[in-house]
Amino acid sequence: MQRPYNFSAGPAAIPEDVLQQAASEMLDWRGSGMSVMEMSHRGKEFISICEKAEADFRQLLAVPQNFHILFMQGGGLAENAIVPLNLSQGGAVDFVVTGSWSQKSTKEAAKFCNAAVAATDEAQGFTHIPDPASWKLRGDARYVHICSNETINGVEFQQLPDLASLGCQAPLVIDFSSHVASRSVDWSRVGLAFGGAQKNLGPAGLTLVVVRDDLLGHAMAMCPSAFNYRLVADNQSMYNTPPTWGIYIAGLTFEWILRQQEGAASGVAALEARNTAKAELLYQAIDGSQLYENRVARDCRSRMNVPFFLKDESRNQAFLDGAKARGLLQLKGHKSVGGMRASIYNAMPLAGVQALVDYMQSFEKQG
Amino acid sequence: MQRPYNFSAGPAAIPEDVLQQAASEMLDWRGSGMSVMEMSHRGKEFISICEKAEADFRQLLAVPQNFHILFMQGGGLAENAIVPLNLSQGGAVDFVVTGSWSQKSTKEAAKFCNAAVAATDEAQGFTHIPDPASWKLRGDARYVHICSNETINGVEFQQLPDLASLGCQAPLVIDFSSHVASRSVDWSRVGLAFGGAQKNLGPAGLTLVVVRDDLLGHAMAMCPSAFNYRLVADNQSMYNTPPTWGIYIAGLTFEWILRQQEGAASGVAALEARNTAKAELLYQAIDGSQLYENRVARDCRSRMNVPFFLKDESRNQAFLDGAKARGLLQLKGHKSVGGMRASIYNAMPLAGVQALVDYMQSFEKQG
């Protein structure tokens, strides 16, 4: 039976291979007699799962050895507090606001530090990324925060800013929740990256933090121990009991990514090629239609989250109902924006995007 | 095939029925075409799962309507910070220290409030619960914290203290991580209860908080929004993306508990009868032997976590190896205490305890 195509923005589709394997190992993980959920996190079975997940993630995104990979909890929303608690020392932090998530991050950080907006595209409805040359970066900023892909607004940095070339010595912090592992990362430009797992990596409840060694050890006194990066790193993500199931599913997903091939490319490079093709197919269909529109500037359209609107909004419900009947699920746009949104993460095959495009065209013709 | 018996202290055994159902629904939850891990937390499918889990938990522990049931993240260790951030207002908080967990809670809370030890059994190696009449409770305490079952030390409150009868008006906070849903709770004596799910309720990464209505809304300014009980309650545990898989498995576990029967008793009462019988069987075997010993006073021995020592510690590894060969897993004691520990949570059947007792007796006879 063909499974439906699930366009949820997160929690989101998981590769079918991963689900099959998780189901088959549910009662007995590889002869251990236990489900992964039943294993002590300090036992050799789970430690092997966790170490392999970390090593595979390091390989697939070419994470340098001077970065720690941490498995944490609380999602991006908790990290909006945890990052300033660990990095700001209560000082200046600059934010570039390109959508709902970076806006939330700014507001939350202001509880803990001197947060300021270095640039914002709010006046244009979050459809552009302000030119880095225009960012008002402070000389005493402890770090500069961006959301490298805005899930709700569909705005993605096609390359990370080079802060050093802007005369800024502060580390760059990126919230890469909704496009992690969909493309390569230039770690030379990054100090810390964080992301909830529930878009591209696995189930909700697991947060991934990749942090450069020199940024550990500066937490404020009011930082809860469970969220102190130094303690988490020193204890191999087991200072408190980690979300073991999430790490296991993420690990299976990393293995799935490493197996992917597109022509000569493999792993993340293969996915990047596939994701580029998927996004082009969908944006071309939108741009070529009379009914649909996407309002984001072409140079910063997200490859992962494609918000679009029906010019005749009275047809929204009919569009969603028809989609569901065809096995095209969870296309409703975020409540703060309205319209539609197709999230086409790593686990969405090209065939799923083609099925959506076919449906959109036939729906438009029905008029 | 008979599954092994898993005595892990947590993450711990999960009822086989729950695992079977989770495996069977992995690719398609009840005709939705999605795994639970793939569902938007804001979609009607997942909302129905979450609402049912909450209602079932309320039913099984008879949680009064003026208490909120929150699904959070971070485990007991994070709650050690989150509770004082929400309840202390930076004022006085009194702790009763009966083992490793209440000791950790005291230390963490001291970052946020004026934490003091009202009573401690450290001098006796955490083998007794200090008589509540002896507790030094301060008149201005914002709350009084106990760990109602100490997982590492095997010390359990057989009844909750009645603070009002001690002349104390502060709410009681209980860390019930390792015995939640194993016995009834007298909510008239409790202001807030919290617990990680990974002992009796489901997988690691889900934290349950049960909090009385009047204790919401007093969070300190430095409390991260994701961990502000008022915001979590007002948003039905969806202020940030909740750990959806954990809530689903906990929900299946709640259904399993509600189905349990022992004689005329059902639900938690049935489990309480079964847990009492299991603990008696194991403690009698220990007390009746020449080789094994448990050092906890009889009136506060845990029904869930039974630490025991071999009087000849040179035989420890042989004991563990022989146990594993018989399908009796994860019996090694916590590294801070040594020896052995049998965690016999709700999911452990009487037959599992009987198998352990049989093995212990045959091992002792081998000499």
TrEMBL record, chains A, B:
Binding-site positions, L-glutamate: 42
Gene3D superfamilies (alphabetical): Aspartate Aminotransferase, domain 1, Type I PLP-dependent aspartate aminotransferase-like (Major domain)
InterPro entries: Aminotrans_V_dom, Aminotrans_V_PyrdxlP_BS, Pser_aminoTfrase, PyrdxlP-dep_Trfase, PyrdxlP-dep_Trfase_major, PyrdxlP-dep_Trfase_small
Superkingdom of the organism of origin: Bacteria
Cofactor, how bound (note): Binds 1 pyridoxal phosphate per subunit.
One GO molecular-function entry: O-phospho-L-serine:2-oxoglutarate aminotransferase activity
Pathway annotation from the record: Cofactor biosynthesis; pyridoxine 5'-phosphate biosynthesis; pyridoxine 5'-phosphate from D-erythrose 4-phosphate: step 3/5; Amino-acid biosynthesis; L-serine biosynthesis; L-serine from 3-phospho-D-glycerate: step 2/3
GO BP, sorted A to Z: L-serine biosynthetic process; pyridoxine biosynthetic process
Signal sequence segment: none
Cellular-component GO terms for this entry: cytoplasm
Keyword annotations: Amino-acid biosynthesis, Aminotransferase, Cytoplasm, Pyridoxal phosphate, Pyridoxine biosynthesis, Serine biosynthesis, Transferase
Modified residue annotations for N6-(pyridoxal phosphate)lysine: 199
Aminotransferase class V domain: residues covered: 5-356
Cell compartment(s), UniProt: Cytoplasm
Annotated pyridoxal 5'-phosphate binding sites: 101, 151, 175, 198, 240-241
Quaternary context: Homodimer.
Biological function: Catalyzes the reversible conversion of 3-phosphohydroxypyruvate to phosphoserine and of 3-hydroxy-2-oxo-4-phosphonooxybutanoate to phosphohydroxythreonine.
HAMAP family, A to Z: SerC_aminotrans_5
This protein's name: Phosphoserine aminotransferase
Species this chain originates from: Comamonas koreensis
Record gene name: serC
